[in-house]
């Protein structure tokens, strides 16, 4: 396939936008529908890809099972239709309708995991964002964690309703501040010359780290959640699971 321009990732700056008009620019090498812009988040950083519907100019609906990156450089986004669904032709204008209820739960969970990394300030070796449960793996030498104390601290952070905001720094600025990166297994999203940071709190921030995922506007929007389980996954690796309650 000839080189395609990057997909405009509207979800990065407008994570609450659930509908959008876009143009089909190509059908990917693996059959994914490539648009000039999208509100659908592609699988990455432990967060699953979005699903929803594309509505064609004739009113026909194409159900999208997931959204992924088409290219290794992570600039072009592919919308993967459910099998046997009608595929809109190249050049068609379509209306994207995001499965908002699912996305919002993922946004709440992703922000909750950032709070988990605050109360457990250790290197993160892995993680996954789910609709009802999420997890982070930590490099922790001791497994004796006081869940009641940690859950109380998490509840305080939610109740404080800290604002969640985004800002950008250059790759060079991130290289000069390696302590911003908490994840050992997942590299911050690079490639465009700049990196997005997610800040929880104001100037005296509760947390600041690189992240390309979608998040809620404030910690109060997360709702109630708790540490459900702590598992030993190696000599110093601890898997901490959280869930909505």
What is this structure, in a nutshell?
With 245 residues, the chain is α+β, with helices and mostly antiparallel strands.
Secondary structure: elements and pairs:
Elements (H helix, E strand, L loop, with lengths): L7 E2 L9 E9 L5 E3 L1 E2 L13 E4 L5 E9 L7 E5 L11 E6 L1 H20 L4 E5 L4 E7 L7 H13 L4 E7 H6 L17 E7 L6 E4 L14 E8 L4 E8 L1
Parallel strand pairs: 1-4
Antiparallel strand pairs: 2-3, 2-8, 3-7, 5-6, 5-8, 6-7, 9-10, 10-15, 11-12, 12-13, 14-15
* Oligomeric state: single chain
Unreliable residue stretches = none
Number of domains in the coordinates? 2
Q: Please give the order of strands in the largest beta sheet.
A: 2-3-7-6-5-8
Rounded to an integer in angstroms, the radius of gyration calculated over CA atoms is 19 Å
Provide an overview of this structure.
The protein is α+β, with helices and mostly antiparallel strands and 245 residues long. 16% of the residues lie in helices and 35% in strands. The model has no long low-confidence stretch (mean pLDDT 92).
């Amino acid at each position: 396939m000839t080189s395609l321009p990057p997909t405009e990732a509207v979800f990065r700056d407008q994570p609450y936008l659930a509908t959008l008009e876009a143009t089909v620019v190509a059908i990917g090498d693996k059959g994914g529908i490539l648009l000039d812009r999208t509100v659908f988040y592609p699988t990455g950083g432990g967060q699953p890809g979005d699903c929803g519907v594309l509505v064609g100019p004739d009113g026909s609906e194409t159900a999208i099972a997931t959204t992924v990156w088409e290219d290794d450089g992570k600039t072009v986004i592919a919308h993967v239709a459910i099998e046997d669904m009608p595929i809109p032709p190249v050049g068609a204008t379509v209306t994207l309708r995001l499965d908002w209820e699912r996305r919002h739960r993922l946004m709440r969970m992703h922000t909750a995991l950032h709070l988990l990394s605050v109360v457990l300030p250790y290197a993160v070796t892995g993680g996954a964002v789910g609709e009802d449960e999420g997890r982070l793996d930590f490099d922790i030498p001791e497994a004796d964690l006081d869940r009641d104390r940690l859950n109380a601290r998490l509840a305080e952070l939610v109740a404080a309703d800290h604002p969640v905001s985004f800002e950008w720094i250059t790759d060079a600025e991130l290289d000069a501040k390696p302590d911003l990166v908490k994840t050992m297994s997942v590299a911050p999203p690079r490639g465009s010359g700049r990196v997005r940071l997610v800040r929880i709190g104001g100037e005296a921030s509760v947390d600041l780290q690189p992240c390309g995922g979608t998040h809620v506007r404030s910690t109060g929007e997360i709702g109630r959640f708790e540490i459900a389980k702590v598992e030993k996954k190696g000599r110093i690796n601890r898997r901490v699971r959280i869930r909505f309650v």
